[in-house]
Amino acid sequence: MSLAALLVLADGRFPAGGHAHSGGAEAACKAGRIHDAATLEGFCRGRLHTAGLTAAALAAAAAAGLDPAVLDAEADARTPSPALRTAARRLGRQLLRAARATWPDPALEQLAAAFPRGAHQPVVLGVTARAAGLGPRDAAHVAAYESVGGPATATVRLLGLDPFEASGVLARLAPELDAVAARAAEAAHQALLDGPEALPAASSPLLEIAAEVHADWPVRLFAS
Amino acid sequence: MTTAPPVPPPAAGVRATARIHAVADGRGGTALPLLAGEGPLALRRTRGREAEAGVVLVGAMSAPLGGDHLTVRATAGPGARLALASAAATLALPGRAGEPARYDVELDLEDGAAVRWLPEPLVSVRGSDLRVRTRVRLAPTARLLLREEQVLGRHGEQPGLLRSRLTVTRGGRPLLDQELACGPGAPGGWDGPAGLAGHRAVGQLLVVDPAFAQDPPPAAVLGECAAATPLAGPAVLVTALAGDALRLREVLDAACRAYHR
Hints:
- The complex is a heterodimer.
- By secondary structure, chain A is mainly α.
- Chain A has one domain (3-11, 19-215): Urease accessory protein UreF (Orthogonal Bundle), CATH 1.10.4190.
- Chain A is 71% helix and 0% strand.
- In chain A, helix 3 runs antiparallel to helix 8 (136-159), helix 4 packs antiparallel against helix 7 and helix 8 packs antiparallel against helix 9.
- In chain B, strands 3, 4, 6, 7, 9, 10, 12, 15, 16, 17 and 18 form an 11-stranded mixed sheet that branches. A 7-stranded mixed sheet of chain B has the order 2-1-5-8-11-13-14, with no helix packed on it.
- Helices cover 6% and strands 48% of the residues of chain B.
- Chain B is globular, with a radius of gyration of 18 Å.
- Chain B is mostly beta strands.
- In chain B, strand 16 and strand 17 form a beta hairpin.
- The A-B interface holds A 24, 28, 31, 33-34, 39, 42-50, 53, 73-74, 76-78, 80-83, 85, 176, 196-197, 200-209, 212-213, 215-216 and B 165, 167-168, 173-181, 187-190, 192-197, 202, 204, 219-221, 224-227, 229-232, 237, 239-241.
C-alpha cells in the first residue's frame, strides 16, 4: 500500500463533501448532549463503536473485493433512518465524483453506472481505496477516522469549541480507532468466506432517532 | 400443550429448544402440528384472534443463566397466522462461572404467512452476560409484527452486559440488521451522548407489510427519543428510548396502533 495515497484519501481537504455533514453532532449539541470536550469525546467514542465500526467493515469489505451491490443492500439494512440513508448516498455520490477524477479505474466507472443516485459512502470509500492501491484495513481506518473526525470538526463550528481540545479528543481515541479498524478488516475477511452476515451491524438507536429529529428542523447548519 | 421432559442440566448450562410449526388448516384457521417446549421453555396454546393460532412462552422467568443456550424456532407455512407472546419478562441472570448465555430466536415465514412476535421485555440483570440473536426470514408476501424491549437492570440496579442482534431478510435480501451492545463490558460510549444517554429502556417495533410497497408510511418523529423510520423495503421500524419499561411500552403500543393493520 501507499502511505501517501492513504493521506490523500483521508485528508479533510479531499473534495468529497464531508464538511457539510456533522455526523449527528449538530442534533446532539442542540439537545445538550454535547456541550464540552468531555461530552464530545463520549459522543465520538459511542459513534466510533457503532456506526463507525459498521461503516469501517463495509468499506473494508468493498476494498477486499466483495460485490458493491451486495454491500450497498447490507448498508441499507444497517441504516433504518431514511435521513441517514439519503445522507450516505449523497456523500457516496460526491466521493465517487472526486475518486473518478483522482484515481481513474474501471471499478469506479462501473459503480457510477450501477448507482446513478449514489451508493452508500462506505461502499464507495472501499472501492476507491482499492482503486488507489490501498487495502481493506486502510479503508477501514479512513472510515473509522471519518466517523469521529466529522463530529469533532463540526463541534468546533457549532459550539466554538477550542480546536486544540477537539484534536486532543481525536488523539485520545486513536488506540480505539486502530482497534475498530482491525476488527472491521477481520470481519471483511470473514465476510469473503462466510458472506456479508459476518459483517458487524453495530448500531446506535439514539443516532438513528436524532437524525430524523434533525431532518425535521427548518434551518440547519449541517446536512446531517 | 406439549412439553418435552426436562433435560438434566449439564455442567456447561442448559440447552433447550422450543419448536413451533404453524400451518393454514384449509378452513380459514391455523393449526399447530408442532408445539414442543423443552426445559425452561414451555409452550402453551392460547386463543388467537380470528384465523390466528396463539402460543405463549411460559416459565422463561428464571432463564437464561450464564452458560445456558436457549432457542425458540417458529415456522409459519403458506397463509398461516401465528401470534407468539411470553407470559412474563425474561431475566438475563449471571451464571456461576461468568460465562455468557445465548438466546436465539428464529422465525421463518412463508408466502402469505403473518406472525406477531410480541414477547415481554428482556431485563439485563447485574452481572449477567447475554447474547441474543434473532433471525427472521420472510417470503416476499409474508407479514410480520415484531417487538423487542430491553431493560437495563431491575429497578435501581446496574445492568449486565447485553448484546442483541436482529437480522431480517425478505425474499433472501437483507431488510434490517441491527446490533445493540450495552452494559458494563460493552464497547465504549454505550451509555454516552451517542449511546443510550442515560436511558434505561430501549426498544423497537418492526412492521413488515407488502402493502407498504405502494403506500409507505412517512418518517415521523415521535417525541425527543423515538422515531418511526420507513426501511428500504416495505417495512417501518419504530425505535424508542425511555426512562423505564412502562414508558417504553406506551410509545411502542401507540406505534403498533398506528402502523399495524
